[in-house]
């Protein structure tokens, strides 16, 4: 794909080249983040619109996604999905209740008691807030969602 115009690459050509690169990398040496970056670039060019990418809690991975030149990507996380549903789909806390209970059950089963959010200040400092409190405060409109998928308390 070296000197090709990315806008002219078909899905078949892209997938064939990806398979070839995967084979050259070798089994067990999967470079998932690089593949994700390439896929996001290709999708952005093909679609010409903002993309949402499910990001892990790995800060370096999030920042890598956000710093890809020439594409408009926003991260979404398990928790920020609730913020997005509330804001964009007018999902009420009553409607979200079964989903909130499900995610709280998941967190409890995996020993997670807090979620990292960013405090309401000029400096982006993290604070750990109980999971249930964060999920309830989403529906009290206490957060803004950042491009990296993190929630920040409104000032």
**Class inferred from helices and paired strands:** alpha+beta
Distance between the termini: 46 Å
* Tally of structural domains: 2
Strand segment tally: 6
Major β-sheet strand ordering: 1-2
Q: What are the segments in which pLDDT stays under 50 over at least 5 consecutive residues?
A: none
Gyration radius over CA? 19 Å
Helix content percent band = 40-55%
| SSE succession | HHEHEHHEEHEE
Give a description of the structure.
This protein has two domains: about 70 residues, no CATH class; about 70 residues, no CATH class. The termini are far apart. It contains six helices and six strands; from the N terminus they run H-H-E-H-E-H-H-E-E-H-E-E. The strands form three sheets. A two-stranded parallel ribbon has the order 1-2. The chain has a two-stranded antiparallel ribbon with strand order 3-4. It is α+β, with helices and mostly antiparallel strands. Helix 5 runs antiparallel to helix 6.
Quick tags:
single chain, 155 residues, alpha+beta, 2 domains, 15% strand
Summarize the structure.
With 155 residues, this protein is of the alpha+beta class.
Topology:
Layout (H helix, E strand, L loop, with lengths): L10 H15 L6 H16 L3 E4 L4 H8 L6 E4 L3 H9 L4 H17 L4 E5 L7 E5 H8 L4 E3 L5 E3 L2
Parallel strand pairs: 1-2
Antiparallel strand pairs: 3-4, 5-6
